[in-house]
Structure formats: structure tokens, C-alpha cells
Design goal:
heterodimer; A: mainly alpha; Sodium/glucose cotransporter; 23 helices; B: mainly alpha; two-stranded antiparallel sheet; 4 helices; 56% helix
Chain lengths: 576, 97
């Protein structure tokens, strides 16, 4: 779940929860779901015996191939709310929602692979806060670690509650049952096998998500008589509205349903928000750090970028197909009447439309797999940051490796318990979710400024990094609160008074990133930098990046990054 | 300068063990099955289950759109079975030498 998509998905949590479930699973569907749970637990127990050292538990032995690391990287991002929320966004905004998969992901993933990964990998750190400690000091690292640990575990709880609500609405399941069963399963397999287990399950989940969701666009396109038939039907159903062009409506704020222009999408989304998420959110970066060598670590995000480009096929296309083939119009959650469906029902409606017994179970399993992959990602990242970036440097410095592994296992279980607490808090105080999701986004955009400046410019000092990070975070918080409590300021910060939530997010991130960069540079200019020899392995210009000359051209990450970038540009041109 | 390498070790800077988890040995626990085997296993189980479901309802398909014309349960079950079989054949314990 990308943090920017979270902001858009808050309404998902307020489904109408009438007693009737939307989908009617059969015995075979339940069998499919039960087999899934047995399988993930089995993988966890199987991998426990391979998880002995801290390197095994926290970084999966640093032995993953580029494909495994890449698919796991992708899967940790593919939460169930990601699937449902963006299908809903596609119904509401049309293909504009695909920007969050393309310009809002691909350049950042390639930047991580080619520019940033060498430093993460060569410094041999366990985590992003760990890198900040090496590059700057304990204060910056501690600030980053505390924010990440708290936010990731709260996000996990919110995600858990959201999933339970989805299961209740669609399947009629009891909220407590969903929360406890899914949490206990995740706690067992992560505590048993650590990152090994999380990554193995994420790869399995990745395939399940694809094969569970892929039938909808395939049968949908057959029903709509292909892409052109679908577009024709959308025009017939919604005359005068443009749902099928990516860039054509972004010349002006008022000419698209999102209330954003190309500056916000290119700079706010493409250069700050997505860069922040994909390059500094440890939840996803941890997967790449587990790669067996630098070339694999660079290839993993490149491989993932191809799949990320394809995900709109199973997420955005169902939303567009819903616009084309459904006989009824969906409505915003806020104005929904009895007998109507909100935008958030896109994916369940399409599942029910095309998937009979067995296939329905597979589709529901895809949603559960998405949820569990996201939660396991949060828990394993939390365990690493807690153990290596907070517990070890600030509490118990000189313990044995086995002590830290034990702490990792216990902190995984503790993380799940805190997540459950957060889920119950969210159940009782729905507005908490808004703030938790917002808090996460406060930190990521400025963190990117701090990390990337620190990596690329040796003049950045520890004080500059700390104050830049703090100033950027406070800017983000201030703008969020300002726009929330005084909507008149939306016009000031998002540059358009009718900017929707997604448009507000990208401008909030843009301002936070700018403030972080300006303060970092300004403070660094007046403080003393570290000696160049201390920055070897940490900063561009002071580090020798291993040559890839020994590989054939087609084996080099830069070659495939170029192919990915070209494919990305072709997609922009096709759907312009 | 003298402190830096120490700090890095403290942060977990051990050299990578190069164990290539998806295909190779793991010194800690012997041979580890590749992740692709697990993918194949669950796909094969799902494929057989869904294929059987599709075949049993061949003459009275569910009331979903295009089910009567396309029989998606049958061919999706067959596809999952084939993919699962391929992964199991290619990555099962018998393939490791």
C-alpha cells in the first residue's frame, strides 16, 4: 500500500455495514481460503529451521535472487486495499488513477535501482535508519527510526481493521474473527521465519493476487468487445466526460475530475511523493536489501517496475470496465442511499459478476493475500527497525546475535499485538484512521530529501539533515492541518480551491520536500561537514561503485532500466 | 575514520553469505526448497480444485456473466493446474543436484 494511496482510501473504511454480504461464497470457495491459510503457516514452519542468525532473520540471509527480491518488493506494496481502493479511484477519476502506478512509481523504482541501491547495499546497513546513522548521526537515525516504527505498526493496525470491515461487508464475517485469525497467522509465520518467511509468502501472494484478479479484466474486455468497445460504452454511459486519457486533461486544474494539473503530477507525485515512498520506505526497501549481491539488488526494483507497470491491468481496468458494463451508476460513499453501491464496491461487484464458485474463492483469497502480504511487510520491517535501530543502539549495545534474533521474534509478536490494539482503536474512533494515514505521509516526503541529498552531496552535515527532516515533516503536518480545518487554504497550498484529496496530497508532499531541501542545504552551509574519507561507501563521489563491465549488456541493470523507462514512455504515449 | 568500519559492523555489516535462497543450499538448515516450488504446489492444488468444480458445473454453469459461453472456471482451473505442474516439475526436490 503506497502511502499516497492510503490517503485516498479512507472512505473505504466507512462501508455501509448492513447485515447482508455482497458476495455469496460456496463450500469450494471456503476450501480455497482455508488451503491458503494452511499454506502460509506451513511455509513459516518450514523456514524456521533455516533462520538462525540475525542476518537470516532480518535480511533473509542476504541470499535472495533478483526475481525473488523483486517480486517480494512488489508484493509488499500490493495490499488488498490497494487493489480495491484504486479500482474505486479508476471508477471515479478514470485512467488518471494510473498515474499512481506509472509516473508515481516507475521513475522512482528505477532511481532506487540505479542511483540509490549501490549506497544502501555497499554500506551493508540493515535498514534505512541504519544508513542515516552511518551517513549522519544517531539523532537523525533515531528520529527516522521512531517515526517509522510507530507509523508502520499503526498502519498495520489500520490496514487490519480495514480488511476486517471488507470481509464483513462482502462475506458477512465477524470483525473480531477476521482481525484475530489473520493477525495470529501473520504473527506465527513472521516470528518463525523472519524475513525469509515474509518474502517467501509474499512471492506466493504475488502470484495469487495476479491469478485471482486477472479474470476480471479478461472476461470484462470480452464482454465489452475490447478496448474500443469499452471506451464507446463509457462515452455512451457518461456523455461529455473524459475517463480514458492520461495527460490530455492535465493542462488546467478544472479540466479533470481530480482538480490537479501536470505540475502536481510530475513534480509532486513523480518527483517527491513516489520517490519518498519507493526509495526510503523501509517496508519495501528491506526486500531489496535481502538480495544476494549488488547486481541482484539493482535488478530487483527494475524487474518489479515491469510488474508495477502491468498492475493497472488488474486494478485500473476493472474500474473502467465497471463504468462501461454496469447497468447502474456507483456513487460517492458520502451520498450513498439504500440500495446503491459506492465507488468502493467496484472490485467486489466485478468479482460477483464474472466469478462463479471456486473462482470467487480465488478472488477473495487474492484480497486476503494482499492484506497479509502488506501486514507481514509492516511487521517484519518493524521488527528490524526496532531491534537494530532502536533497541541495539539505545538500549542493549553488546548482546549476542542470538539475543537480537530472539528480540526480533518477540518484537514481531509484539508488533502484531500493537497492531491489533490499533485496529480496535480504529474500530472505536474512526477518525484516528485519517490521522494515522496522514502521519505516515508526513514523514516520507521529507525523508527522501534527507536521504537523497545525503547520498549525492558530501557537503550535507548531520545538523543539516536533522533540521531539514524536522522542518519538512513539520511543514507537511502544518499544511495537512491547515487544509483540513480551513478549506480556504486548499487553494493556497494545492493551487486550486476544488483540488480533491489526491491532488492535495501531491502538493503537500511537494512543499514538504522543498522545505526539507532548502533547510538541509542552508543549515549544512553553516555547519562543518565530515571528512571525505569518512564518507566512503556512503556518498556519491566518495564511493567506488563496482563496475558491471564483466556482464554482457543485456545482463546489466542499467540496460533493463532503460527498457523499463522506454516501456513507461510508450504507455504514456498510447494513453496520452 | 577508525570508527567507521566498527560502526558498520555494529549495524549488521556482515558480508553477504551468497546463499541464493530460491535455488541453493542454506548452511543453517541444509537444502532449502525454492520458493517457486511452493508457488507451484498451491497453484496445482487450486487448479485441480477449480477444474473439478468447473467440470461438475459444465452443464449447469453459475449465473455469472458469460459463464455459459466461456466456462471460465474450467479453463482457469486448467491454466492453474498447468502453471502449478510446470513449477513443481521445474523446481521440486528432485531437480536439485
Amino acid at each position: 500500500m503506497t502511502m499516497h494511496s492510503w490517503m485516498a482510501l479512507a472512505p473505504l473504511l466507512f462501508f455501509q455495514t448492513a447485515g447482508v454480504s455482497m458476495l455469496r461464497p460456496h463450500a469450494v470457495d471456503f476450501a480455497v481460503i482455508v488451503i491458503y491459510f494452511v499454506m502460509v503457516l506451513g511455509i513459516g514452519f518450514y523456514l524456521k529451521r533455516f533462520t538462525k542468525s540475525g542476518e537470516d532473520f532480518f535480511l533473509a540471509g542476504r541470499g535472495m535472487s533478483s526475481w525473488v527480491a523483486g517480486l517480494s518488493f512488489m508484493s509488499a506494496n500490493l495490499g488488498s486495499l490497494e487493489l480495491m481502493g484504486w479500482a474505486a479511484a479508476a471508477y471515479e477519476y478514470g485512467i488518471l488513477a494510473a498515474h499512481w502506478y506509472w509516473i508515481g512509481a516507475i521513475p522512482a523504482m528505477l532511481f532506487l535501482a540505479i542511483v540509490m541501491m549501490p549506497f544502501y547495499y555497499i554500506s551493508k546497513t540493515h535498514s534505512v535508519p541504519g544508513y542515516l546513522q552511518l551517513r549522519f548521526d544517531r539523532a537523525t537515525s533515531g528520529l527516522s527510526a521512531v517515526c517509522f516504527a510507530v507509523m508502520t505498526i499503526l498502519m498495520s493496525g489500520v490496514n487490519m481493521f480495514a480488511m476486517a470491515v471488507v470481509m464483513k461487508v462482502f462475506l458477512g464475517w465477524n470483525l473480531h474473527f477476521s482481525i484475530w485469525v489473520s493477525s495470529i497467522v501473520v504473527a506465527i509465520y513472521v516470528a518463525a521465519g523472519g524475513l525469509f518467511s515474509a518474502i517467501f509468502n509474499e512471492v506466493v501472494q504475488f502470484f495469487l493476487i495476479w491469478f485471482g484478479a486477472l479474470l476480471i479484466p479478461i472476461i470484462g474486455l470480452i464482454e465489452a468487445h475490447g478496448w474500443s468497445g469499452m471506451v464507446a460504452r463509457i462515452h455512451a454511459n457518461f456523455p461529455g466526460q473524459d475517463f480514458t486519457h492520461l495527460w490530455r486533461g492535465l493542462g488546467h486544474f478544472g479540466s479533470n475530475p481530480m482538480g490537479v494539473n501536470w505540475v502536481g503530477i510530475v513534480f509532486g507525485l513523480g518527483m517527491v511523493t513516489s520517490m519518498g515512498y519507493w526509495t526510503t520506505d523501509f517496508l519495501v526497501v528491506q526486500r531489496v536489501m535481502s538480495a544476494k549481491d549488488l547486481r541482484s539488488a539493482k535488478m530487483a526494483p527494475v524487474i518489479a517496475s515491469f510488474f508495477k507497470m502491468a498492475i493497472p491491468f488488474i486494478v485500473i481496468l476493472p474500474g473502467l470496465l465497471c463504468l462501461a458494463v454496469l447497468p447502474v451508476h456507483l456513487v460517492p460513499q458520502s451520498v450513498m442511499q439504500a440500495g446503491e453501491y459506492s465507488y468502493n464496491a467496484v472490485l467486489p461487484l466485478m468479482l460477483g459478476r464474472y466469478c462463479g464458485p471456486g473462482l470467487l474463492g480465488l478472488g477473495i483469497t487474492a484480497l486476503i493475500a494482499g492484506f497479509m502480504a502488506g501486514m507481514a511487510g509492516n511487521v517484519s520491517a518493524f521488527a528490524t527497525v526496532w531491534t537494530y535501530d532502536l533497541y541495539r543502539p539505545f538500549m542493549r549495545k553488546n548482546e549476542t546475535d542470538s539475543h537480537y534474533v530472539k528480540m526480533g521474534r518477540w518484537s514481531s509478536i509484539l508488533g502484531v499485538l500493537v497492531s491489533i490494539g490499533a485496529a480496535y482503536a480504529a474500530m472505536n474512533f474512526a477518525s484516528i484512521m485519517d490521522y494515522v494515514q496522514a502521519l505516515f505521509s508526513f514523514f516520507i516526503a521529507p525523508l527522501f530529501g534527507t536521504v537523497v541529498l545525503g547520498m549525492l552531496w558530501k557537503r550535507v552535515t548531520a545538523k543539516g539533515a536533522f533540521w531539514g527532516l524536522l522542518a519538512g515533516t513539520l511543514t507537511s503536518v502544518s499544511i495537512f492541518l491547515s487544509m483540513k480545518f480551513d478549506p480556504r487554504t486548499i487553494g493556497v497550498f494545492a493551487l486550486y480551491p476544488k483540488a480533491q484529496a489526491l491532488a492535495q496530497d501531491v502538493y503537500q508532499a511537494l512543499w514538504a520536500g522543498i522545505v526539507c531541501a532548502v533547510v538541509t542545504v542552508a543549515v549544512s552551509s553553516f555547519t562543518r561537514p565530515r571528512e571525505e574519507r569518512e564518507l566512503v561507501g556512503l556518498v556519491y563521489g566518495c564511493t567506488e561503485i563496482p563496475s558491471e563491465g564483466k556482464y554482457a549488456v543485456w545482463q546489466r541493470p542499467i540496460f533493463w532500466a532503460g527498457v523499463s523507462l522506454a516501456a513507461f514512455l510508450v504507455l504514456q504515449w498510447i494513453f496520452w | 575514520m577508525g570508527e567507521k568500519p566498527q560502526n558498520r559492523r555494529a549495524l549488521g555489516g556482515n558480508p553477504p553469505r551468497q546463499v541464493a535462497v530460491d535455488v541453493e543450499d542454506n548452511p543453517a538448515g541444509g537444502k532449502m526448497l525454492p520458493v517457486w516450488f511452493f508457488v507451484g504446489f498451491i497453484f496445482l492444488v487450486y487448479g485441480i480444485l477449480i477444474l473439478i468444480t468447473g467440470l461438475t458445473e459444465l452443464h449447469h454453469p453459475p449465473h455469472t456473466v458469460l459463464a455459459r459461453e466461456l466456462h471460465p472456471t474450467v479453463w482457469w482451473g486448467a491454466l492453474l493446474t498447468a502453471v502449478g505442474g510446470f513449477f513443481i516439475y521445474g523446481f521440486g526436490p528432485w531437480r536439485r543436484t
